[in-house]
Amino acid sequence: MALPDRDLQAAIAATRFGLGARPGEIKAVRSDPQGFLLAQTAPRGVPNPLRALPRDRVEALQEFRQAQSAFQQANQQQDRKARDLRPELNARRAALRDQIASDVLQRAALGATTEQGFAERWALFWANHFSVGAGNFVRTATIGPYETAAIRPHVFGRFADLLVAAETHPAMLLYLDQNASVGPDSPLAQRTARRPDAKRQLGLNENLAREILELHTVGVDGGYTQADVTEFARALTGLSFRGFNAPAEKAGETYFREIAHQPGPRSVMGVAYEVEGEAQALAILNDLAARPQTARFISRKIARHFVADDPPAALVARLEAVWRDTDGALDQVAAALIAAPEAWAPAPAKFKTPYEFMISSWRAVNAAPRKPADLAMLTAMGHRPFYAPSPEGWPDEAAAWATPDGIIKRLVWTQDFAPQVIGTADPSEVAAQALGARLSPATARAVARAESRGEGLALLLMSPEFQRR
Amino acid sequence: MTSFSPVLAPPSLSRRRLLAAGAGLGLQMWGSRVLAASSRRKFVLVILRGAADGLSITPPVADGDYVALRRELAITEAALPLDGDFGLHPELKTVHRLMGAGQGRFAPAVAMPAAGRSHFEAQDRLEAAAGNDVSSGWLNRAMAALGGGSTPEGLSVGPVAPLVMRGDLATSSWSPGRTVETAARLPMLVQDLYADDPLLGPALARGLKTEVLAQANLARLAADLPDASGTMNSAKLSRTLLGDNRDAGRLGGAVAGFMREDEGADVVAVSLDGFDTHANQAGALSRRLAYLDALLAGLQGGLGGGWRETVVLVVTEFGRTARVNGTSGTDHGTASTALLLGGGLKAGGLIGDWPTLQESRLFENRDLASTTDLRSLFKGVLADHLGLERRTLDTTVFPDSAQARPIFGLV
């Protein structure tokens, strides 16, 4: 399979591997499209959108939780003081809400402006692979910092490190109920059971164990059983984090809660784990990362994301082989993807998700979202950032997104967006810069014939080739 | 407890009339005749995603093991009374009213064969119902199989198409939101650009058609439901619906509006998520079931007389563990409850057998066991209500499923 000509390669590098071309990008990339992408696979990680440090977030969460408990306590005792405490709680809640909106906005703005579109797409792929969805305020406020601390630094490093970082972050522990999972024979469960006023039995929660196996490592066909899920859940007991009512310097930290751990050796997928305590879960995670099923499952997912909903088997096999040979060195896997001729097939096979569509639209006009309301339409499109519907993350296939309603929503958004951002730019020039050699004669003609600049840009953004990558 | 044996009931009045009308056309034509002669027959599938807890939807109040297994999650005195053996979750007030009027039934121990305990795989199986082939959904195949001039219009609610609706037959989708001016220049120009696009062309055409219906529908709904100031216009209502959908009743009403249109939807799929209650189940489940109930109330109210010709089936991908877990929640299980509602149902209560919660009867010593293949329920409804033939159901709609016999006589 030969590579397409250099102009098409440059357009593909910016639009398929990246998040869409900004003006001048395709031209700049043309001398060495593969090198442009390889330079982004730095093992130190991917640029970070958040200015706020996790420590600031922990403080905001603590202040919120304190205000919340003070209010609830007073409210329960029907204390008139509750009324006076409410404004404080509302202010703390509003502060946290603003921070969450800012996390989303900063991430989108980074996507719209970054010169490393491939690295950003790669990071978004992994954030979706280890998806944490929004819930109550506290959980939603952990998602931005989670992507910052657990995902982005590791996406071009070893998969095992990424896996451990993701599964042990408070956001994931909160999302998949791990904090509340207690070994039935642990000292904590025993002690609670002996209490005469015990309202409920402490016990296992299998959620995290199951999703790690099914979604994060070996995949649903990875050959594990219900017994393996339960054994793994037992091993994970004790993995926990300190709540935001804990003393300031410890709050929000992951730690091993020995008294909640189910004692004894474990056996998961045919491997016996004699080691006890914290090391037990880590040993299992590392073994899962090294399994060939994991290499196969995730290699296919990568190929599906970058190349086609039903990716070429030869490409999947090549990624899988590199993954196994390098022990899951993700920069090497990325390099194998960049080197694969299948990834440079001329036809755009992938339909953009709503987030990708909107980010690439901003990139096309050299703009970025400035306020949370600029992203509001993503909610109507069923793709609100941080609100993935399940631990499986967002769907990645055209069948899920190219729906009648989905297209109508894109049209509605484009109709508003295009006239606002086009300014005095020439839409035909925007089209040439955004799609390069991928611009079809039909779209170029329609854009040139438009009755206004805004209409010209809208036609570009809605064109079949801009909707795909 | 009682057990149900499927009975071939005599045809209902409407069916008898249709049979008379179709006399002489031969059995082969019968299926399509039903729909052609009765173009008002509607079917709504509601999928509760995340594995909804059947033991809370229809709590088995008379089962001696229920309280011991469920402890603080057991719903006993609070349950809305049904037949003495089962109750309904206290939030399911509309469902309770319908069941009291002979317009609702329940199957307390249903599952797909080999559903597994993965949400995503089980949802695929529930919606594709074709072994490992997940390329299309059974609702799409059922509609396509009706064929001829009687092919129903399919509509899914939400910006993302559910698998159950995907397939060869083009269907529509809709969700509340801002509207597009369908007669404006831009949509037409974009349609031109999509003329040769096999994916985007048909999708846009259907979207625009639905948009026309939506605007008429919302205008009417706005007239029916003026807000406090009496000035609810359709654009404002559309935004209200978008919100966070707190007002599920209005969403139900909007869906009913689509179904009432002449060229509107005959077969509708709606998904509700948020049923994966691993921790603190009681509150979370109450909120979601209240939402479901309000949606059903809005749907029934909005359909008006059309409710008599409508069947609603509420299902989930699998049930939850019989025992409460360590976090006042439940984990992934096997069988759950399906609810069947509609103005034209035959009166009756329980569908299928109750396996009981005795320890020896629990599946793998943890889950409520399944006594009824969900496909049998699907097939019964598709046969009796939409007129699909047995052979088509056994082969095309649910491939290799002859052993899952339709439960006839429900409609």
**End-to-end span of chain A in angstroms?**
20 Å
Strand order of the largest sheet of chain A: 1-2
Total count of helical runs of at least 4 residues of chain A: 24
Order of H and E elements of chain B: HHEHHEEHEHHEEHHHHEHEEEHH
Largest sheet of chain B: 8 strands, mixed
Description:
- The complex is a heterodimer of chains A (469) and B (411).
- With 469 residues, chain A is an all-alpha fold.
- Chain A folds into three domains: 54-175, no CATH class; 178-290, no CATH class; 354-467, no CATH class.
- Chain A has 24 helices and four strands.
- Chain A is globular and about 80 Å long.
- The two termini of chain A are 20 Å apart.
- Chain B has two domains: 13-135 and 243-394, 3-Layer(aba) Sandwich (Alkaline Phosphatase, subunit A), CATH 3.40.720; 177-242, no CATH class.
- Chain B is built from 14 helices and ten strands.
- Chain B has helices at residues 13-22, 27-37, 54-57, 66-70, 93-100, 119-128, 138-146, 185-193, 200-224, 234-242, 248-260, 281-303, 374-386, 390-397, and strands at residues 42-48, 80-81, 87-88, 104-111, 154-157, 172-174, 267-272, 310-316, 336-342, 372-373.
- At the A-B interface, helix 11, helix 19, helix 20, helix 22 and helix 23 of A face helix 6, strand 6, helix 8 and helix 9 of B.
Task: Give short descriptive properties of this protein.
heterodimer; A: 469 residues; mainly alpha; 3 domains; two-stranded antiparallel sheet; 24 helices; 3% strand; globular; B: Alkaline Phosphatase, subunit A; two-stranded antiparallel ribbon; 14 helices; 10 strands; 12% strand; disordered N terminus
Q: Which secondary structure elements does this structure contain, and how are they paired or packed?
A:
The complex is a heterodimer of chains A (469) and B (411).
Chain A: H1 6-17, H2 25-29, H3 33-38, H4 54-76, H5 81-113, H6 117-129, H7 137-151, H8 159-167, H9 170-175, H10 187-194, H11 207-216, H12 226-236, E1 239-241, E2 254-256, E3 266-268, E4 271-273, H13 278-290, H14 292-306, H15 313-325, H16 330-339, H17 354-364, H18 377-380, H19 398-401, H20 404-422, H21 427-435, H22 441-449, H23 453-462, H24 464-467
Chain B: H1 13-22, H2 27-37, E1 42-48, H3 54-57, H4 66-70, E2 80-81, E3 87-88, H5 93-100, E4 104-111, H6 119-128, H7 138-146, E5 154-157, E6 172-174, H8 185-193, H9 200-224, H10 234-242, H11 248-260, E7 267-272, H12 281-303, E8 310-316, E9 336-342, E10 372-373, H13 374-386, H14 390-397
Parallel strand pairs in B: 1-7, 1-8, 4-10, 5-6, 5-7
Antiparallel strand pairs in B: 2-3, 4-9, 8-9
Helix pairs in contact in B: 1-2, 7-14, 9-10, 9-11, 11-12
